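2024-03-11 09:14:02 DEBUG pipeline.ingest accepted 1 chain
2024-03-11 09:14:02 DEBUG pipeline.ingest length=280
2024-03-11 09:14:03 DEBUG pipeline.predict start
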Amino acid sequence: MQNQSGKRLFKLRRKMNKKLNPIAWTLLVLFSTFGLASCDKESDKPLSLDLVKNNSTKLYYGSKGGVTIIGGDGKYSFSCESPLLKAEMTYSNYISFVPLGVGDATVTIKDSSGDSYILKVTIVYKAQKIVVSKLDATVIGDAMTVGEQKELKEKALATIPVKVGGGYKFVYTEGEDLEQTKATVFIYPDKYGENGIEGTFERATVKDDDGNYSYTTFTMHYNGQIRTFVLTKYSQVVLKSTGDYYGQGQFAEDLKEQYKMAYPNVEQVYTSQVISVAVE
């Protein structure tokens, strides 16, 4: 009796499984399709640019740049009709930029699905803000009297064109990345940003006999004057011939030629403007 009951239960389960299998397969297909669609939707991110905010970026004239495309369907193209900017797709998702002028340019980026991204590129001259925090002068001459050294130090300090809190603004109208370049300088005698005196300057990199970097010079032309400052580290001993300077940054000016007739025993005399440098 029990054996017959078991057979009947087995046949009943087989009938139920046959009825349930089509339903289960239908549900499995539906859930799989939904899951795949969800995954595709998550991976299809909007077209955008890496490390770019508010659809805008800034370039310095004379320097190169570029943007990396992310999102979209991966098949990218772009257009740029501005004469201020040379753009080139150097990789499948990277556009390189070479500024040709100063102003604003627009780059339109698209993928094959029609999604687009409009980038505003602002090109400006790079400017260095240099503020003076300390003034100093050094006089070296073993055969000089203490009075002569003190007198010469006061004269040297009086030649510095700015006071503490004043400074210089170098505007690189021909590009900043060159080893030698010339452009516009604004000299602020009393306070940085106020009552500036406009002039020009040449910046040059000086190398030693082996071709290694030694130091950088800034030669300024303003109000009929020509001044050459050496950009180095600040220390109590400065050797212009070798560029061996240690400590804080400074503009150092060698004045020996200017005073050697009046002070024949002077060995070295130079001024130091201790500075901080920032990019504007």
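2024-03-11 09:14:41 DEBUG pipeline.report Residues 127-279 form one domain.
2024-03-11 09:14:41 DEBUG pipeline.predict end
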